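lol forgot to send this yesterday, sorry. struct tokens for the thing we talked abt
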């Protein structure tokens, strides 16, 4: 039965390093909320097919795809999508550009593909932009975001701001043509010429050899075009920041019971505070059951290894429980669970006390 919930969409960012079961658990959390009666979406930012595999699908697309679950309450559903960065960037240009002609000038620039798919911060900004659009649509009660695997999980939330700071960089702005000059190419070349005066001719020649003829001109054009959209991009990011600070936004951390994980959790929680967030829930995955080494054979190395491992894991779990309010323990599984019926049963068992 659905609990009372604000009309504002609840957003759950599921974070963690690679290999801790983050994507499978994102799917389980999404299934849990769908079975509680919420219109739920799980969105992955990871280009790998882990979420599709976890949900028993061949693939996911940029368009939300319904997941078949049994015995859902009336009106609830679960959908899943994979963030296509290039597609989202194209949609953003359509939204921000003043005309189709202005959009074409950007998309036809040969550096556009690099900027829209490979430049640091672009992936994260577009993920946030798509998320904000989905929240604004009011189609969903709950959105689960399976963030990319990262050793430093906070990077996902700070990268968009760094991208905007990059385009506001005074050095890059030296590429932007002055409005008093006529003709985009002439203006770009004029400003590039001014920049050339600050370096030696030998350095310029080396740059041309490395990048190819016309690269710097294309770069100047691209920066000039993107800079025209910068006010809209910055305004959009303000809304994204509000979403990060919103009371309906939660940050979940998936870890395994290792010493390194303790450090990762404390570091993540510390860096969330400047963003206005706090660590809401920790899921400790792959915890071995307690094993006592009571073998009459003192040289039973395997039994001793598992006994020592389970004891050290238990100590770390207790440290987390003393330090954080919401900690869920998930026992180690003998095999991966992918079938949606099994996932539903597993989610019901694991998250019965989470609403």
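and heres what i got for the seq, position by position
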């Amino acid at each position: 039965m659905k609990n009372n919930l604000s009309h504002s969409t609840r957003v759950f960012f599921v974070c963690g390093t690679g290999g801790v079961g983050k994507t499978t658990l994102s799917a389980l959390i999404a299934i849990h909320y769908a079975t509680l009666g919420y219109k739920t979406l799980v969105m992955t930012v990871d280009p790998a097919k882990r979420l599709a595999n976890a949900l028993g699908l061949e693939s996911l697309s940029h368009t939300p795809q319904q997941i078949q679950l049994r015995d859902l309450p009336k009106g609830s559903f679960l959908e899943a999508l994979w963030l296509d960065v290039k597609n989202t960037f194209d949609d953003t240009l359509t939204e921000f550009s003043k005309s189709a002609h202005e959009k074409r000038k950007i998309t036809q620039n040969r550096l556009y593909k690099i900027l829209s798919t490979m430049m640091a911060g672009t992936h994260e900004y577009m993920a946030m932009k798509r998320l904000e659009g989905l929240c604004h649509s009011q189609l969903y009660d709950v959105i689960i975001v399976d963030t990319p695997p990262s050793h430093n999980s906070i990077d996902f939330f700070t990268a968009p701001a760094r991208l905007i700071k990059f385009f506001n960089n005074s050095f890059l702005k030296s590429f932007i043509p002055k409005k008093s000059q006529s003709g985009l190419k002439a203006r770009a070349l004029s400003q590039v010429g001014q920049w050339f005066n600050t370096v030696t001719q030998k350095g310029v020649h080396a740059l041309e050899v490395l990048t190819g003829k016309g690269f710097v001109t294309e770069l100047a054009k691209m920066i000039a075009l993107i800079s025209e959209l910068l006010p809209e991009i910055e305004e959009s990011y303000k809304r994204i920041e509000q979403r990060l600070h919103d009371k309906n936004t939660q940050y979940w951390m998936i870890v395994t019971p290792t010493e390194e994980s303790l450090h990762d959790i404390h570091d993540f929680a510390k860096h969330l505070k400047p963003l206005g967030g706090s660590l809401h829930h920790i899921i400790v995955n792959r915890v071995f059951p307690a094993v006592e080494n009571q073998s009459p054979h003192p040289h039973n190395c395997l039994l001793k290894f598992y006994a020592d491992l389970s004891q050290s894991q238990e100590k770390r779990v207790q440290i987390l429980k003393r330090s954080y309010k919401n900690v869920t323990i998930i026992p180690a599984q003998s095999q991966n669970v992918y079938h949606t019926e099994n996932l539903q049963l597993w989610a019901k068992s694991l998250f019965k006390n989470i609403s």
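The chain has a mean pLDDT of 79. anyway ping me if u want another try
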